[in-house]
Write a structure and sequence with these properties.
Bound molecules: adenosine-5'-triphosphate
CATH class of the largest domain: Alpha Beta
Oligomer: single chain
Shape: globular
Number of domains: 2
Largest sheet: 7 strands, mixed
Number of helices: 9
Distance between the termini: 39 Å
Length: about 300
């Protein structure tokens, strides 16, 4: 065990954990362990949870939450991230975690995963990198398949179950109007109800390669526009159960979006805008429709 480090004792630091949206999410197979292989374009956006970390003397991890309701115990992904960091480094330290939750919960925006990655990254930095990037990525994947993405900064192509990540160097600067209808979607329910035919390993690999090549070919086009490649294999199922998702999509397009799509397993839907001003106008209009919480967020580079 390492001795108590004075680095974090009683000093507090504040960190921002951004949300993500999936510009494209294609399922390319199901693994024997039940996880799904996918190819996705994931983009972090400027809608944040705020996390405060402070060292304490009592050798325990404590957590307080404010804002939107999430479990304020060992189930919280921020808590679990800190716990796994201390266990794997052997560092003995008391830590108080304050979580101000603003990213809608169970909404397809990756809030819990982002909180977990934020805590892992911050603790590794505070303790001067006891874990390598590879070790940190392994801890992240153990916490959830979206967590490794949030260790990176910026848009990525995700493959495998989400752990193979390739940064996209030149993603267009866009504004996203995000609407989260007031329905709770269980990610497990969505994946459990996907109508996925049995498929061999070779076919899975081919599908993955084709999807990946499709994305790469589009990114190379001089005329590339994200609105042209929006697609989410989980959308039809979630939308059939919650028709409000389709209504929000249509309303975003009517409000001037250059495309609209459900993010992750939903229910949040985003619309794309090249102009901040048009995005603001759309946000105002979407608020009047009262179909859910409405946010305007810039894509993060
Ligand atoms: P996922 O696809 O992983 O479910 P999501 O973006 O749809 O991601 P999250 O907001 O991450 O949803 O919440 C997923 C579940 O994780 C919720 O049931 C929530 O209670 C639990 N959870 C645990 N810790 C957190 C946290 N810090 N923030 C949000 N949710 C958390």
């Amino acid at each position: 065990m390492l001795s108590r480090s004075p680095t974090i004792d009683h000093q507090s630091s504040t960190h921002l954990a951004p949300a993500k949206i999936n510009i494209r999410l294609k399922i390319t197979g199901r693994r024997p362990d039940g996880y799904h292989n996918l190819v996705s374009i994931m983009v972090p956006v400027g809608l944040y949870d705020r996390i405060e970390l402070r060292g304490t003397d009592h050798n325990l991890i404590t957590l307080w939450c404010e804002g939107l309701s999430v479990p304020a115990d060992r189930e919280n992904l921020a808590y679990r991230a800190a716990d796994s960091f201390f266990s794997s480094t052997g560092i003995e330290q008391g830590l108080s975690i304050g979580l101000k939750k603003d990213i809608p919960v169970a909404a397809g925006l990756g809030g819990g995963s982002s909180d977990a990655a934020c805590v892992l990254k911050a603790l590794n930095r505070i303790y001067s990198d006891p874990l390598t990037k590879k070790e940190l990525a392994a801890l992240a994947l153990d916490l959830g398949t979206d967590v490794p993405f949030f260790l990176k900064d910026g848009p990525c192509i995700a493959k495998g179950i989400g752990e193979i990540l390739e940064p996209i160097e030149e993603w267009p600067r866009l504004w996203y109007v995000i609407v989260t209808p007031p329905v709770r979607v269980s990610t497990a329910w969505v994946y459990g109800n996907l109508n996925w035919p049995p498929i061999g390993e070779t076919e899975q690999l081919e599908l993955t390669r084709d999807e990946y090549q499709f994305i790469i070919a589009n990114l190379k086009k001089s005329s590339f526009a994200p609105g042209h490649i929006l697609d989410n294999d989980l959308e039809a199922l979630t939308m059939a159960r919650f028709p409000v998702i389709g209504a929000v999509k249509r309303a975003l397009i009517d409000s001037g979006a250059g495309g609209a799509l459900m993010s992750g397993s939903g229910p949040s839907v985003f619309g794309l805008f090249e102009s901040e001003e048009r995005a603001r106008e759309a946000k105002t209009r979407m608020k009047t429709l009262d179909t859910g919480d409405v946010f305007l967020a810039e894509g993060l580079p």
